[in-house]
Amino acid sequence: MTSTPSVSATTTAFPNSTKTTTPSPSPSANSRLSATAACTQGTWVGLPYLNRFYNSDCSTYVAANSFSDLTITATNPSYIVYMENNVTVSAGGTMTVTQGVTLNASSGSALYVQGNLDLSGTASAPITLTARSGSAGGWLGIGFRPGSSGNLDHVVIEDGGEYPIVSSQGNGY
Questions:
Q1: pTM above 0.90, yes or no
Q2: pLDDT value at position 133?
Q3: Degrees (nearest 5) of the Cα angle 130, 133, 139?
Q4: What is the DSSP letter of 49?
Q5: What is the model's pLDDT at position 166?
Q6: 44-56 per-position pLDDT tens digit
Q7: Distance between CA atoms of 82 and 26, rounded to whole angstroms?
Q8: Which residue positions in the chain have pLDDT lower than 70?
Q9: In 3D, which of 36, 38, 70, 69 has the Cα closest to residue 55?
Q10: What is the CA radius of gyration of the chain?
């Protein structure tokens, strides 16, 4: 029996999105959310994609995304979540990622925190944030905005670029 990831999310797609003509590598069927939204324009596709939205014709496009609350729980030992554009944790919101999740970020993407970020891995099942390209500077990193908070426990951050992790004090972004 395959379990599905725990997800509770409120999202907002930002303008200036780009339509995807070649989809990202598909994760295994075991890691996909069992129910997806009917192809309503602007509806978030769901995990494992943080930045995919439906067009009315059921094709998808990639856009920056903002979550007020989101929980990502690994459903198998190699559970991968794809971040194909910027993701923002909204002020007052929380993004929780549990042990064993790998966040695979595309070039130029960043995770901005205006609310709370809780990354709680373990020694035997850390959380990994890495560039999809596998090369140094392949994604921007995590940016904590003024008034934000975070807990990073047993987290591996690889291939971050401009700001692998920056605090909210005077970093000018």
A1: no
A2: 83
A3: 55
A4: B
A5: 61
A6: 888 899 888 888 8
A7: 10
A8: 1-38, 162-173
A9: 38
A10: 15
Q: Are 59 and 22 in contact (CB under 8 A)?
A: no
Residues in the chain: 173
Using CA atoms of 29, 32, 38, 43 in order, give the dihedral in degrees to the nearest 10: -140
> Do the beta carbons of residue 166 and residue 141 sit within 8 Å?
yes
Tokens in use for 153?
Answer: 């426990």
114 CB-side CA count, 13 A: 12
Closest C-alpha among 78, 67, 69, 70 to residue 126: 78
Q: What integer pLDDT is reported at residue 78 of this predicted model?
A: 84
Q: How far apart are CA 7 and CA 131, in angstroms?
A: 23
Beta pairing, strands 116-120 & 149-153: parallel
